Amino acid sequence: MLHITEQDLTYYNTLGLKSSARSFLRLNSTANLPALTDIVPRFPGVVVLGGGSNVVLAPQVDELVIHVETRGVTLVDQETDAFVVEAQAGESWHHFVGLCIDQGWRGLENLALIPGTVGAAPIQNIGAYGVEQSEFFHSLVAWDMQRGEQVEMGPGDCLFAYRDSFFKHAEPGRWLILAVRYRLPHEWRPQLAYPDLARHPGIALAGAAVTPRQVFDAVCEIRRAKLPDPAELANVGSFFKNPIVDAKTFNALRELHPGMVAYALDGGTHFKLAAGWLIERSGWKGRRLGPVGMHERQSLVMVNHGGATARDIQVLADVIRAEVATRFGVRLEQEPVEMGSAASEQT
Questions:
Q1: What is the CATH number for 47?
Q2: 86 labelled catalytic
């Protein structure tokens, strides 16, 4: 049976923004999906909320807020060269990665300590330290709110790109991700291309004998040293995407700014610029504007020092975008999803 109530959402978002939902539903069983489909037309829209780690909440959310709370991790297939593992959408992503390591299902360790739920991972196409979830993605199961049926989607259906997927551009309120499957190969090779990871003492000392657990632990230690814990200082992690430019644009920028940090893509035809470097050089590292600011150790992370609203967040974001555009001619794109109008992303 579906139980819809009003709900204070302040503790359902890691930015700690004061917000409330007029209509809030906890989804902890797929048995309720047909009934859910029947009632959705009564509301002005639908938003799906997971860990709340990538959202900017409006003070009032009028849409039906579905909080996904399903749990469970299962080995659904063991192929000759890989394990196929399924996790329910409400599972904590970090917990899922740690469980995989414990079970000997290797490959996701570079994505340790990323906040949020498994259901949000393919929507955002999360990535860190040289690995994206799409590299191991097998398939997902989603509920089509419009047709009232369960659908399975493979990599080709999801249209993964940098911090992007089919779901970010789909019809609002239509898709609810139920479970995600990953194909994790028996033959494991550590991904240590990022300098911070390669230089970490635990990795450097292990050398060729490095284990998935050591990579997992090193990633956790690096992230904790660089990024604030939302439980201590409210934030949503990286607030802007790293902009991608072609080689001609990058070479022109590098001539003007010799120390510019960037990573080559597609054999050097494109470059991913470090948004944090651009923001720091624009003077915003550790700087505040009212109750919000950019973190003192990581200029890509916007933090709420207390009492901020969605308006405060957007004012600072607009100011930083404008200053980076003026200084470098580069447009920064916001990563967190705005929720409270027509948004319907699972985050």
A1: 3.30.43.10
A2: no
- With contact defined as beta carbons under 8 Å apart, do 121 and 166 qualify? no
| More confident position, 343 or 31 | 31
Together in a domain, 62 and 83: no
The one catalytic residue among 163, 183, 223, 321: 163
pLDDT above 90 covers what percent of the chain? 87
Phi-psi region of 43 (alpha: psi -120 to 50; beta: other; left: phi over 0): beta
- Domain-embedded: residue 231: no
The residue among 10, 74, 16, 80 whose CA lies nearest residue 230 is 16
Average pLDDT over residues 153-166: 95
Catalytic-labelled residue, pool 92, 134, 238, 344: 238
CATH number at residue 117: 3.30.465.10
For residues 203 and 80, state if they share a domain. yes
Cβ neighbours of 295 (radius 10 Å): 19
What total of structural domains would you count in the chain? 3
Quick one: pLDDT at residue 205?
A: 80
Considering the domain architecture, whether residues 221 and 266 belong to the same structural domain is answered as: no
Task: Report pLDDT digits (tens) over 326-336.
Answer: 999 999 999 99
Structure tokens at 279: 């923001």
Residue 336 domain flag = no
Q: Which two tokens stand for residue 105?
A: 């299902």
Catalytic residue among 135, 323, 335, 338: 335
Shared domain check, 143 and 110: yes
d(CA 49, CA 347): 6
User: Quick one: 78 and 139 in the same domain?
Assistant: yes
Torsions phi, psi for 246 (to 5 deg): -80, 170
Tens-place pLDDT, residues 57-108: 999 999 999 999 999 999 999 999 999 999 999 999 999 999 999 999 999 9
Residue range 192-219, pLDDT digits in tens: 988 889 899 988 888 878 999 999 999 9
Residue 238 is a catalytic residue? yes
- Residue 237 covered by a domain: no
- Give the range of the structural domain holding residue 83, as residue numbers without chain letter: 73-226
User: In the structure encoding, which two tokens stand for residue 303, read together?
Assistant: 């933090």
The β-bridge relationship of strands 55-57 and 60-68 is: unpaired
Domain co-membership, 196 together with 157: yes
CA dist 195 and 197 (Å) reads 5
